[in-house]
Sequence to fold (315 residues):
Amino acid sequence: MDQVRGNRVAVILPCYNEAPAIASVVAGFRAALPEARIYVFDNASSDDTAAVARAAGATVVTVRHRGKGNVVRRMFADVEADIYLMADGDGTYAAASAREMLDRLIDEGLDMVVGCRVPDTTSVAYRPGHKFGNRALTGAVSRIFGEGFTDMLSGYRALSRRYVKSFPALSKGFEIETELTIHALELRAPHGEVATAYGERAAGTASKLTTWGDGFRIGRTIMRLHMLERPMEFYLTLALAGVFVSLWLGVPVILEYLETGLVPRFPTAIAAVGFMLGSLLMAVCALILDSVVTGRREAKRLVYLGIPAPRDRSR
Fold:
């Protein structure tokens, strides 16, 4: 494999039923990065995606488990390179931006460069619903995990080897981009963004993304990762809410007892005690899980630090 400034580069393209587009996508990245090796990971397409990609000169790997997350997991496990450039196989991402993304990664020693989508004014590729959902979900991640990205759901990314090989890849579907983003924020990996043109899909292909279904799954992923990566914050918030409910239910009962010496509303009193006990239990869980997550985060960090950072090796 030829090298880009002393680094082995792999272009990795997850695909499902992209036969009309994949040849031009491979050709575009071949022209933009003639030094790179191009891999097409075909997600058991029912059309001729694999054959067309192979004829175009790409190395084709078939992934039987459906879902983009499953494909990304396989790509990261199987491909060996110093820098990975990931894009979709539908022709919406501009291969012309690839060199700029790689240069930014190498020059600034970054672990991730995201291609932020800038749709053409005449294009309908970036639908309003998707655009709104992206802003809302990116904002939610920024509030929970910290700012750093403006287009969290972009599938166009340049990634360092140390990032890729320390990434657990737990998601199965389109929520994989969310997991990629949050992993970078939690790892405190240096990252950046490059504006890139975003066009319409090739004729004869159809989007596999559903606005509401995938939006719900992405939102669920954010909540799951909030619980797993920030248990102290997550469970203490629930515990505090439980304390407020307990006081709201219990204070009137206590005042009534102090005034009359009677507790006529036993179910309310029992509910108040239950909420308080549940809150205390959540607070204890928060402390225990926070120590577990700290150990897991340290282990991921050690794996990350064990791999050399991207740099210009041609000098």
User: Anything to note?
Assistant: The mean pLDDT is 87. The domain at 3-229 is CATH 3.90.550.10 (Spore Coat Polysaccharide Biosynthesis Protein SpsA; Chain A).
